[in-house]
Amino acid sequence: MPGPLDPGVNIIGATDPRRIRNFCIIAHIDHGKSTLADRMLQITGVVDPRQMRAQYLDRMDIERERGITIKSQAVRMPWVIRNGDKQGETAVLNMIDTPGHVDFTYEVSRSLAACEGAVLLVDAAQGIEAQTLANLYLAMENDLRIIPVLNKIDLPAAQPEKYAEELAKLIGCEPSDVLKVSGKTGEGVEHLLDEIVREFVAPVGDADAPARAMIFDSVYDVYRGVVTYVRVIDGRIEARDKIKMMSTGAVHELLEIGVVSPEMEKAGALGVGEVGYMITGVKDVRQSRVGDTVTGHNRPAKEALGGYKDPRPMVYSGLYPIDGSDYPALRDALDKLKLNDAALVYEPETSTALGFGFRCGFLGLLHLEIISERLEREFNLDLISTAPNVIYQVITEDMKESTVTNPSEFPEGKIAEIREPTVRATVLVPNEFVGAVMELCQGRRGTMLGMEYLSSERVELRYTLPLGEIIYDFFDQLKSKTKGYASLDYEPSGEQAADLVKVDILLHGEPVDAFSAIVHKDKAYNYGVSMAGKLQKLIPRQQYEVPIQAAIGSRIIARETIRAIRKDVLAKCYGGDISRKRKLLEKQKEGKKRMKMVGRVEVPQEAFIAALSTSDSPDPKAAKK
Ligand SMILES: Nc1nc2c(ncn2[C@@H]2O[C@H](COP(=O)(O)OP(=O)(O)OP(=O)(O)O)[C@@H](O)[C@H]2O)c(=O)[nH]1
């Protein structure tokens, strides 16, 4: 029989599970999750107000700058119950901060699995958005209790009454049940903390069973190696236990175990329902994967917890150093990033146009952008990235099937079938933009699955779309066609056969691998014309005529010509000033060093960069709203 709760306030170390509430905050990006989390840390006294800095939990520089959460973190806070029969007792709240972007859905879903409840946060000036729905559905799949909360009620544009109704309709409660807070001013946050203790259930588990804990995050730290965040389901894990990873069978010595509040604090053990960290001295997050089950080596559990999935790259792109001598540095940098990112995959590849580089696989576009930005910023590398593409299954007429992650791997000869990955996309828009969104989705070979009115003015549209069609500029287009009002969320939904072709770009008869692309048959011509046109503008005239052609196999579908000329840099320099002439010729020589020879054609580096970026470059941040 469990005894009465002891009223102690020590919240570090094994805690009575009845005291614990594990919860997360789920929200559409920018609806104020991190700000609310900050306010909770402050109100519960976990962070000294003098040390408070905005977005305390977002530790990575890029995160703070972009204001988005990439890696989830967990923090423990005490909260003294203010009313009801448990008044005066200290509850232990474990708040798990989850990433909000579609690329990281798997991480969100694991973080949710570590909780009993979710605070569903909605911006009171914007209402429900696509990721509000996606995250809510994930929370419901994990059987979480939900507290609906409207945030930013301090904003003059806030319409709490209107959106309370929308939110109530969505989750099936009364509008009066929707809490109203401001993460910025702190209004309503204490009441929310009370409700978290009252509404969410305490974790249950078998304290005497063999230990089982789920990994919901795993982060590489330069000084301590991999720090693994776990939620204990059954049993107890003690400092200096030997632990076993159930998916791989690997055994590690536990060097340290503890909780985060808000910095790491060592503890002797973690028991049922507790959330904390473990350090085992492993150096690579791949040995401590999100979703895996940790058990004791001496008394292992028989069955792992469900739901483990290997991270699977969805989008591939080639990364090449602009300066070829940076190749070893790029390899070292990728090796380092891999330590912290189980989803990043890469292998060396060479391109006739770009030299030595790596073919890298990413979870999605934001992931790609984050990795290239970190490579450039943290490792000082200047990179060219090739146009992103998805994974195709190509079956040739002799029934050979190959997986194509790069246009250069596209098989020669007759093709029987090509299969491309698709996604189920949800778009939320105000009424008046429905037509524009439909037009856009149809233009991207979308198939409509359904349409629903969430309120009199907001519509949810569901489409199946080829992933390859949305990794370019879909978000940008969606945003511009809806004046920024649409929000988008998507999840993988299998494969479909498609009429795709490989378009090559030839310079003086030589294919330039970096510009090849796999596109739909109906779009091949446009791609060819626009690429040839771009290159014609970007490549300077040479001493002979250079044709630029776009071709499907041996069939030419577009052509531009760069006319011949020898640029005479001395043309404007009459008279006998030889030193000035020499200077100009030297400068011309300098310029030529930065040229790459593609066959017989000199192409400036900038041409590659410009042709591969500009309007085709996606802006994943645009996917936010
Ligand atoms: N006026 C007002 N602004 C707020 C409030 N809460 C957050 N904001 C602002 O809204 C913006 C987004 O807030 P964040 O806390 O970064 O949002 P988030 O949901 O954590 O975003 P991600 O980390 O990208 O998922 C910031 O500019 C905040 O200052 C609030 O209660 N009132």
TrEMBL record:
Cited Pfam families: EFG_C (PF00679), GTP_EFTU (PF00009), GTP_EFTU_D2 (PF03144), LepA_C (PF06421)
Protein name per Swiss-Prot or TrEMBL: Elongation factor 4
Gene Ontology terms, MF aspect: translation elongation factor activity
Organism, scientific name: Winogradskya humida
UniProt key word Protein biosynthesis: yes
SMART domains: EFG_C (SM00838)
Family: Belongs to the TRAFAC class translation factor GTPase superfamily. Classic translation factor GTPase family. LepA subfamily.
Reaction(s) the record says it catalyses: GTP + H2O = GDP + phosphate + H(+)
Binding-site residues, GTP: D30, H31, G32, K33, S34, T35, N151, K152, I153, D154
PANTHER family (alphabetical): TRANSLATION FACTOR GUF1 HOMOLOG, CHLOROPLASTIC, TRANSLATION FACTOR GUF1-RELATED
Top EC class of this enzyme: hydrolase
PROSITE patterns in the record: G_TR_1, G_TR_2
Tr-type G domain sequence ranges: 18-204
UniProt keyword terms in alphabetical order: Cell membrane, Elongation factor, GTP-binding, Hydrolase, Membrane, Nucleotide-binding, Protein biosynthesis
Function: Required for accurate and efficient protein synthesis under certain stress conditions. May act as a fidelity factor of the translation reaction, by catalyzing a one-codon backward translocation of tRNAs on improperly translocated ribosomes. Back-translocation proceeds from a post-translocation (POST) complex to a pre-translocation (PRE) complex, thus giving elongation factor G a second chance to translocate the tRNAs correctly. Binds to ribosomes in a GTP-dependent manner.
Keyword presence, Protein biosynthesis: yes
InterPro entries noted in UniProt: EF-4, EFG_III/V, EFG_V-like, EFTu-like_2, G_TR_CS, LepA_C_sf, LepA_CTD, LepA_IV
EC code(s) of this entry: 3.6.5.n1
Membrane topology: Peripheral membrane protein
Location of the protein in the cell: Cell membrane
